[in-house]
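Before relying on records like the one below, remember that each one covers exactly one chain. Contacts with other chains, cofactors or solvent are not represented anywhere in the record.
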Amino acid sequence: MNQIAKKIMVRTSLLVIVLSTFTLTTQKLHFLKDSGVINVR
C-alpha cells in the first residue's frame, strides 16, 4: 500500500513539473512574440 502511494506521488509530482515548465515556456514564447523578438510568418 505504501509503495503504491509513493508511486502515485512521484507520478503526480512529475506531471505537475512537466505542466508548469510547459506553461512557462509557452508564456515566454508569447512574450517574445509580443515584444517582436521572434518574427512569426
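The chain has one helix and no strands.
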